[in-house]
Batch of 2 targets.
Target 1
Amino acid sequence: MNRSLVFAYPGDLSLKTGGYGYDRQVLDGLRKLGWQITLLPLGEGFPFPTADTRRGAETALSSIPDGTLVLIDGLAFGVLDAWAGAHAERLQIIALVHHPLALETGLSDEQQQHFRQSEQRALAAARHVIVTSPMTARELASNYGVASSRITVALPGIDKSDVRRVVNAAPQILSVGTLTRRKGHDVLLRALKSVEDLDWQAVIIGSKSLDPSTSEALARQVETLGLEARVQLLGEVDDPQVHFASADIFALASRYEGYGMVFAEALSHGLPIVACHAGAVPDVVPSDAGILVPVDDAPAFGEALRRLLQSPREREMRSAAALQAGSLLPTWADTAAIISNTLDGIS
């Protein structure tokens, strides 16, 4: 069996984000299953590429030989609708959608409409669509005209290992997510200010380079709120597992998540969670393991933190529930196997 594949992706595949992390893990798993993979970078700036970047991406993709199986990350594919329509017959195009582009936060109505229409056209040209959550599958089937039979859900995996817990003098609150508006760190900071009377320390891990203006605004917000001695904005770290192992509570106020890999990671480490009813988060975080509040509701987020900070007993109960839920999550080998079987069925 010829198990060869071109994987086309935008930006920097080495970035420490959930989406790129998913891509790296899947590629590694597919290689272990015998797939020969050719990497095809499409350039920076997606889903807002310059005209030159778009032309370069389309030229590179157009040079792929007829009949090739091509897996394209949705961050780029959703705006390459014209190219996809022109090459749908000669290539076996598979889309990998982490979440629909139109559901990104901070977009104007015009941008949302543009992304929705372009992604719908692009997906119509794909032989099959791989998504990372049931919620995204439902969204594409309901609002993008993609038949359920053309969608495969491949949940992100986790690296299952023994849970190591550190005993802290003061509860440690961990948040992991790029310093972008969608991750809602501004809401978390306001919530932390509201529980300033309690004993805690907080660490926020995530790239500062993807959205420098938001990153700088968050640093100013920490200073304005007077939380410099209690909140660390660490940026990217080499080994986030160390921070998961030393945390007592996981808190992330995302405004939208197509899945939320960090929530699965928190569950696998037995961390009680405070988060928002946003996108796929309720599908990932069981009600007995986490407290979910409305999006952008800093007072409610603060009250949820207060509950956990003031009640070691509730933290213990939710920690046990988190561990149980985490034990049921797939491994990355499981994720790669699902995608491999899907690709075999197409190629």
Target 2
Amino acid sequence: MSNNVNDFALIEEIWNAVTHGIGFALSIAALVLLVVFAVMHGHGALHVTAAAIYGSSLMVLYGSSTLYHALTHHKAKHIFHIFDHASIYVLIAGSYTPIALITIGGASGWVLFGLEWGIAAVGIALKFIYTGRFELLSLSAYLVMGWLIVLDFSTFKAHIDPIGFWLVVAGGLAYSSGVVFYVKDNIRHFHSIWHLFVMTGSILHFFAILFYVV
């Protein structure tokens, strides 16, 4: 029985590493496309910087996750497990950066930007200082950060094309729905399913930001 469990765990980790390894490769292409589009549209340094931050946040999340699942050395795997969870904060705040600074803009946009990165900084610090603790708090922070758009929902909706709006909403719902599998990832295949929800959310948000924000 133990051999079967170990075999399953190995297969599961390989699948997890492969799925987010693909995500990492796609995130490199995403970063390039985002920056190129921002430069081509000629809206200035803010657009290029926001696009670069978002693209980089995709690389951080998928790179950290891939390394965590691919590594077998116990200590290295433990370190990248922390990075894996901390990178969720980076991706959420990174995804909000172009939406806050470009789509919403003005003082309200900067406030949203500050809130996102402020919560992310605190969350990341807690992950490294109190590793393995306050998991419910972390999960709550992820969800709160993900839906902070409600603070200026009317401005966001007014300043983005309807297609872009629904892509952002659909992406948020994909991430949030995947949380069910994230919290139950001790069940077979659930962590892999969580990965698919994350990739779906990322793809939807990428197209929204590429075509309707930057």
